[in-house]
Automatic annotation (TrEMBL):
It comes from Probosciger aterrimus. The keyword Nucleus applies. Gene3D superfamilies: Immunoglobulins, Ribonuclease Inhibitor. GO terms for cellular component: nucleus; plasma membrane. Residues 1-34 form the signal peptide. Residues 499-521 are annotated as: Disordered. GO terms for biological process: brain development; cell adhesion. PROSITE patterns: IG_LIKE, LRR. Binds itself as well as AMIGO1 and AMIGO3. The keyword Acetylation does not apply. Keywords: Cell adhesion, Cell membrane, Disulfide bond, Glycoprotein, Immunoglobulin domain, Leucine-rich repeat, Membrane, Nucleus, Repeat, Signal, Transmembrane, Transmembrane helix. This is Amphoterin-induced protein 2. Residues 302-382 form the Ig-like domain.
Length: 521
């Protein structure tokens, strides 16, 4: 029988024991858990450092659990809310806590002060409604947080404050109507977050412009499928860009992305969002979205341009190379013409020229993780001078057309309002006023002009047409005046014809006055 010496660490130092077989295993177990008291409750199942107390009608954590446990499962119980004393003892080695399918409706700040080293927390399928205060601030080592299948309607910016190492956040099947952009921007942003599942919520709009500034390593892990989005070309362009980048959040759930027309808010007809440009979005709208996400870059001749390689592989040890449109290999620390590649993957064009336009490819390679990714970027270089001359010509043409239109309008107005009135119009106007003031009297002079020669006077005849206006007087008194016709509504018309005689003295003179008209015999 041989004995073996084992050196075992303990809280009070290092000691040696002479053990064999089962005795050695017992001493090792005691050394791991220390001298802390604890036992396996009758309602739970204990397997080394794993304790399962599922579906036991518990409302709080049992107080006599092993302090050396690393995984505690309390799912399918009656836990209603979390407060600072809901875990009765300090469990420093606990890294996995599962509390799903309970009735948790609220979480008080300090509820996780006795479990500070959690890395995995499952609060799914409960009754949480709002997340306002930083209730998880003690969990500085937390990496995965499950909150799906709750009733969360609102998330305040500081709700996840302190979760500096959080990598995966599951918020699907809730009642969120706004995208939690504060997770990626602002002072409470989660810099290590690589997966956000916010699918099957109540979001109808997305902050596409603001999301364009988020790095690709974060964008690639955003899951949005199953939301009742309004049909929008900006959203379509963003998702198409993600699809071309082979983001699994879009590629794996392409058929789950649907949209609703704003005229049909109740969603009777769901339309496919990522199938054959169903929305008929214009090319300019799609290109503007691509440009916002860094897929298209515009520059002028002579500009200095820096293009970033927005790769999802951004770990230390990642190597970046670029391939130009003419298939030249551009590597870090090797300047080629006016190109320079930095170690972080950025490409610099010191003096952009027209021939530099085209499709560039950035290749990110990580040999340790056996990963690689290719990002395509389009660069458009244009000549500002040519564009400026075309714009100047277009402006001149438009200005000339506008000036001609204004001149035409001015001439028309001058013709309509400033044309002098003919003399006849003025004479008639004066006569009309005179007739109205002289008691409707009219004088007819049939004498021919005396300036004409005697031969022409003998050979001509004089004709005059007189329009006599009726005199409107009261019926009971005529004041010595005789009415021409018995009917006042009739206008008298008379044509007088006179035959010329040998001398001017034989001409006929007619005067209409207060006496009746008497023709000569």
């Amino acid at each position: 029988m041989s004995l073996t010496w084992w050196t075992i660490p303990a809280q009070l130092g290092v000691f040696k024991v002479n053990c064999r077989g089962l005795v050695c295993l017992l001493v090792f177990t005691v050394s791991v858990c220390g001298s802390a008291p604890g036992m396996c409750p009758a309602a739970c199942i204990c397997a080394s450092d794993i304790i399962s107390c599922t579906n036991k009608n518990l409302s709080r954590v049992p107080g006599n659990l092993y302090k050396c446990m690393k995984r505690l499962d309390l799912s399918y119980n009656r836990i209603g809310f979390l407060e600072p004393e809901w875990v009765p003892a300090l469990f420093e080695k606990l890294n996995t806590l599962i509390i799903n399918h309970n009735s948790i409706s609220s979480i008080v700040t300090g509820s996780f002060s006795t479990t500070p080293n959690l890395k995995y927390l499952d609060l799914s399928s409960n009754s949480l409604k709002t997340l306002s205060s930083p209730v998880f601030q003690e969990l500085r080592a937390l990496e995965i947080l499950l909150l799906y299948n709750n009733q969360i309607t609102q998330i305040e910016p500081p709700a996840f404050g302190g979760l500096y190492k959080l990598q995966k956040l599951y918020l699907s099947y809730n009642l969120l109507s706004h995208f939690p952009l504060d997770l990626y921007t602002g002072k409470h942003k989660l810099t290590d977050l690589v997966l956000l599942d916010i699918s099957f919520n109540h979001m109808q709009l997305m902050p596409v412009q603001r999301l364009s500034s988020v790095p690709a390593k974060h964008l690639s892990g955003i899951y949005l499928h199953g939301n009742p989005f309004y049909c929008d070309c900006m959203l379509y362009s963003m998702l198409i860009f993600w699809y071309q980048r082979h983001f699994s959040s879009v590629v794996d759930f392409k058929n789950e992305y649907t949209c609703l027309l704003q005229s049909d808010p109740k969603g009777y007809n769901k339309l496919p969002l990522l199938h054959d440009n169903f929305l008929n979005c214009s090319e300019s709208t799609v290109n503007s979205s691509f440009q916002a996400f860094g897929f298209i870059h515009d520059a002028q001749v002579g500009d200095r341009l820096i293009v970033h390689c927005d790769s999802r592989i951004s770990d230390a040890g990642t190597h970046f190379v670029w391939v130009s449109p003419d298939n030249r290999l551009l590597e870090p620390d090797r300047e080629t013409d006016n190109f320079k590649v930095f170690r972080n993957g950025s490409l610099e064009i010191t003096d952009a020229q027209l021939e530099d336009s085209g499709l560039y490819s950035c290749i990110a390679i990580n040999k340790k993780r056996l990963l690689n990714e290719t990002i395509e970027v389009r660069i458009n270089v244009s000549n500002f001078t040519v564009n400026k001359s075309h714009a100047h010509e277009a402006f001149n043409t438009a200005f000339t057309t506008l000036a001609a239109c204004v001149a035409s309008i001015v001439l028309v107005l001058l013709y309509l309002y400033l044309t002098p009135c003919p003399c006849q119009c003025k004479a008639k106007g004066r006569k009309r006023k005179l007739n109205q003031s002289s008691a409707h009297s009219c004088i007819l002079n049939s004498t021919l002009p005396q300036e004409l020669p005697a031969d022409e006077k003998k050979a001509s005849t004089g004709k005059r047409v007189v329009f006599l206006e009726p005199v409107h007087e009261p019926k009971h008194s005529q004041n010595g005046k005789v009415k021409l016709f018995p009917n006042d509504n009739i206008i008298a018309e008379s044509i007088l014809k006179t035959t010329r005689t040998k001398s001017d003295s034989d001409s006929v003179n007619s005067m209409f006055s207060d006496t009746p008209f008497m023709p000569s015999s």
